[in-house]
Every structure is written in structure tokens, then in C-alpha cells.
Amino acid sequence: MTKTIITTLSILLILSGPGRAQLPVLARPNSQQLAFQDLELGVFIHYSIDTYAARDAPQGSTPASAFNPTAVNPEQWVLAAKAMGATYMVLTARHEQGFCLWPTKTTNFSITSSPYKNGKGDIVREFVNACRKHGLKVGLYTAPWIDSHWEAGQPGYKDGETGRIDKLDDPELYKKALQKEKEQIRELMTNYGSLVFIWDDHFGRSDALDSVRYGGKLREFYATLTKYAHELQPECLLLGPDIEHVGNENGKAGYPLWNALNTVDSTKYSVSTTYRWEHTNTGEPLGKFYRPQMAPTTVSFSTGGWMWAGPRKPQPLARRMQAYYETIGRGSGIIVNLTPDRRGLIPDNLVAAAKETGDEIKRRFSNPIALSNSKLPVQTLKFNGSKTFDHVVTMEDLHNGQKIAKYTIEAQIDGKWKIIVEGQTIGHKRIDQFAKVSATALRFTVTSSIVQPAVMRSIAVFNADTY
Q: Are 333 and 380 in the same domain?
């Protein structure tokens, strides 16, 4: 019989008055956040004027005329992403150099000043159309804090200081930068249909570089801009207010991982207290806000940086799968960079690696030997005879918040129960991998939960044959 009963962590009780104890109210996801967590795997397309810049060119100095792809094909990007199992994509509509891949009214430093289609092109449009044609959700990237080309034309600009934290403290620069960014985000969010996600790069940067909080006008700038974006498309999620960064670009989420968190000023539109660059972002079990975590990565998929700068090689399949286990398998999402070259195409070796990755994910996780959709916190899955397996994939029902803090998985071997996994958080998904076990049944038990009842979504058992 089950020897451990689900318990509420007594240390998490909140005293609400003399002699009275009240369980905490958990942060809950909205419907868009729940749907986004189900997307799990996305693809980043880093492609812009950077792709055509000379190796040592100062940022923002490459002329628009350098953008001259010979075979750009967003549909090829989408098909490569789909073969990897991606469900959504994000394109760098405007990266830090300031070059816009759409015909914006805010600057001449855009595709309209390039040779591409004699200045009549719109790669954002082509990208959006290709995604929708093949059933992938659409996201876009902008870099509000850094626009090197634009900044170079401002009074008092000093070359090399485009990433200075306090630059927006200048009232005139702040006003002009905010007006420009609001107009660019308005164009992107009103001219291309519904978007699932905006990666507004560097959200919270001023509060995340080190232990010293800066805040200031940069924090205000991002809060104002993201609030405006929410007004334009209330159901579009934004990095920062809605989606949390895991804190690194190595394809590795923290564990245990909580989707709830608190922010530095207790508002939705600021950085979380647990976010630090190149540190583990744990979240907080009793945090006020719910933000699904996401891990962006290029290094765990291939050599080279975010933008194309020459030939690159895919990482070994084992490294790519490691990133899958250490992100999706820990409850976060992952967005993997696939980088077009100067032709405007993802090179064949990266396309092949993307398909290989997708095929391997399907091979390991498409055919469970046992599956339960019960919501109970204690479950026994009985097999038809003895079964051999090496993975258990669990999912928590998150509609009322993330609750599970500890659990065990046992296997019934020769009539006796043996613990094979002792885990902590589950959240959206937890993938437990272990040495092969042959058993006649599996028992899952939630042993600690922030509040009761803990509610499961599914349990799946796999023999992925990875040893």
C-alpha cells in the first residue's frame, strides 16, 4: 500500500489573524500562457543586416545596401523548423543594428533601402505567411534597448556605448526612443495579424547584470512599451511581463523550477527577483506572478553565434537531446536558433540536424508503454505482464497554479515496490530518465504539495532505448 500521503508544506502556511491559518493563493496562468507552455519547442530565426556585415565593422555601420540575399526563402526555414518538431517561430524583425526587415515608416535603414526586390520586399510578411501556411504560430523579435544605427544619429552619441545602462536617463533621448519603438511595435502588431509572442530583447537588463539594482528610466521604458504592446494585442505574450527567461543561453533550465515569481517592484512590468544573467532562475513557489520559463539557445544546437558569420557545424545529437531534457524535461520551453546564411537559406547540414533532432524526439516519446490521464496525486499503472522502460514523463495540471514540490516513482519488481525516482517540481512537464527497469507496475506519489489538492495531467512510461 502507499506509504506516503500527500502533505501540505507547513512552512508555507500564512497566518491571516490570531489563531487562524490560511493556505496561500497561488499565481495562476492565463489561457494564453497555458497554451504557450504546450507549444514547448520553438525556433529562432536570427537574420538581418548582421549576416552581411564585415567581421570588424562597428555595430550599426553596415549600410542597408549590403542586405542582398540571393535565395532567401522563409518557407524553407519553416519546413526545417517543422521537421524539428517546432510549433512556433520567432524572426528578428529588427535586431540591435537597427535594420528593419519590413518597410517601416520610422527609418530608411530598412529593407526598402536594400537591393532586395528593388526595395519592395517585406521579409516579415514572407515569414508570417510561410508560418501560417504550414501551421506554425508566429512570433517576432525586436531590441528596444539597442538600436545602434539610430543612436549614432543622436546628439552626444559616443561610439561603443550603445549598450550603456543609463543612456535613456537623458529625457530627450528617452522621449524620442520611446516614440520610435512604440511606432515600430505598432506596425508589427497591427500589420501582420495575430502574434503569439514578442521577444522584446533585454527586458529587465538593468536589474539583472549583477547584484546592484539599477532600475531607472530603462525599467520605465520597458514597462511603458510592453503595456502598449498589450493594448495592441491583449492575447500576445511578451518576454518579461508574460514569459520568463531561464537566465542563460546554454539550453539549460534550473531545477527545481517554479513558474511563479515576484518582481523587483511588485508590478507585472518589471524583472523578477530570481532572474540574474548566467545564474539559475528558480522562480518562487509563492510568487505573485505566473510566468512560464523559456530557454533560448544557439550553442546547444550548432557552433557559431546567433547571426551567421561563416560555416558552422551541428552539435552532436547527444548534446542537442541534452538541451531538450534540461529545458522541456525540467518544465521550461526552449527556442532553438536556426541561422540562415548569406543566401538567405538555412544550410543543408543544419536542416539535416533539425530533422534528426525531431526524428529522435519522436522515436523516444511517441509510443508509451503505459499512459494515465488521471488527475489523482497517487496513481498505480499496472502493466500487462512485465515491461521494460527507462523514462517516465509527468505533467501537472496548472490551471490553478503550480503545486507539486516533491514526488516519488516506484516500480513493482518481483512483487516488491522499489523507488526509482525521487523528484521535486513537475510543472508543465518533467522527464525522468534512469537505467532500464523491468517491472509489472509503476506507482506515482506526490509527497509534498504547496496546497492541496495536487492535480496531475498525465503520466506516460517509455522504453526509449537510450542505453
A: no
